[in-house]
TrEMBL record:
Record-annotated Phospholipid/glycerol acyltransferase domain positions: 91-207
Enzyme class: transferase
Protein known as: 1-acyl-sn-glycerol-3-phosphate acyltransferase
A Pfam family that the UniProt record links to this protein: Acyltransferase
Gene Ontology biological-process annotations: phosphatidic acid biosynthetic process
Length: 257
């Protein structure tokens, strides 16, 4: 078994002084709800505009970046990784899941030129205050009551996407409770095989140090993100073998810290 990863030395070091952090939290409390409602209801007004989805996606990305700024959280990714992702195409993105911050962090660090969206459980897309924004951003709705139906829905959605657009999947299925990566589900590998796409693994470090399970208000600090080289499924291997190889590839980077 791999050694448990050690938290990065700078992960929980506040990036702002205490007075600045307090001021930002006050701004978030006062203006955050209004901004959220604006983001959620823009699709009701502008959804029929030409190029709306691309424009709206960038708006949502900016909102995620502003939220992290107000929380005094910095997301870091190397320039080399950003350049790789800017040119990424014909991929399915998989990331490990440590915290509720993970999606916001990914939206912040990935370049605008890389268009991606998330697969989300249908219950979230049905929520009254979320469904207009989620549908406007092009989220893929997944009904998890049936694994077979979910995979078919996801594969069909990926087939219909242009090559420059990718769907983001959490192969662990939910936030993992272990110190290393949790067990991977086969969904990403199955979809990649069926659509002929490669897998782009992305590893998130330390997000659970800032917002662990049971904590509502995140700490200030730094979350690091690493984009790994493309992972190609092996047509000569079984699905389980590809899943294990993918997990081992990502775990080696995560456990290294």
């Amino acid at each position: 078994m791999a050694n448990a990863p050690q938290p990065h030395g700078n992960a929980t070091t506040p990036i702002d002084g205490f007075p600045t952090r307090v001021l930002k939290r006050i701004m978030l409390i006062l203006f955050g709800p209004l901004y959220f409602l604006f983001i959620a209801f823009v699709p009701l007004i502008c959804a029929k505009r030409t190029g709306f989805r691309g424009w709206y996606w960038r708006l949502v990305k900016r909102a995620c970046s502003r939220l992290l700024w107000l929380l005094s959280i910095r997301a870091e990714m190397s320039e080399a990784n950003k350049q790789d992702l800017a040119q990424d195409s014909n991929s399915v993105i998989v990331i490990n899941h440590r915290s509720h911050l993970d999606g916001f962090v990914l939206m912040d660090v990935v370049p605008d030129s890389k268009w991606f969206t998330f697969a989300a459980k249908k219950e979230l897309c049905d929520a009254a205050l979320l469904k207009t924004g989620f549908k406007g951003a092009g989220l893929v709705e997944i009904d998890r009551k049936s694994g077979k139906v979910a995979k078919a829905t996801l594969s069909a959605a990926v087939h219909s996407m242009p090559e420059r657009r990718s769907v983001v999947l959490f192969p662990e299925g939910t936030r993992t409770k272990s110190e290393s990566l949790g067990e991977f589900k086969a969904g990403a590998v199955l979809v990649a095989r069926e659509t002929g796409r490669m897998i782009r693994p992305i590893v998130i470090h330390d997000s659970d140090q800032l917002l662990p399970r049971g904590r509502f208000v995140p700490k200030s600090g730094t979350i690091r993100v690493e984009a790994l080289p493309p992972f190609k499924c092996d047509p000569e291997a079984t699905v389980d073998e590809d899943v294990t190889r993918l997990r081992n590839t990502m775990m080696a980077v995560f456990d290294k810290g």
